[in-house]
Amino acid sequence: MDFGGDWGFNKINRASILRELHRKLRNFEGMTWAEIERATGRSGKLNHSIRIDRLKTSVQNRLRELRLLEEHDYLYSLHFDATGRLWGIKDNEIFYILWWDQDHTVYPVTKRYT
After folding, report:
1. Does residue 110 register a pLDDT over 80?
2. For residue 26, what are the contacts with CB-CB under 8 A and spacing of at least 6?
3. What are phi and psi of 24, to 5 degrees?
4. Residue 29 dihedral angles phi and psi, to the nearest 5°
């Protein structure tokens, strides 16, 4: 877990967010990766990998600081709510938590039809 930078866990200042993260992670524990990756919403897949070279420069710079940029090609995003995402590295069946992105800024997307 990263405790620095713009998306570090040091930015979480409310216990309610941590409780919600814990509750949702417990739900994921009972699922296979195939089930997690099949979950869809109005805009498509909820949980998915993103190529690091498609992420903002500031994200790539933070990964470089953490010495993770050269080791990995993808980050994985777990959908929690309308804007909240848990980012990490998926290595086979293991998800290594990296960041909590409350405002969907690690990989911002524009909504269709707006």
Report:
1. no
2. none
3. -70, -35
4. -60, -30
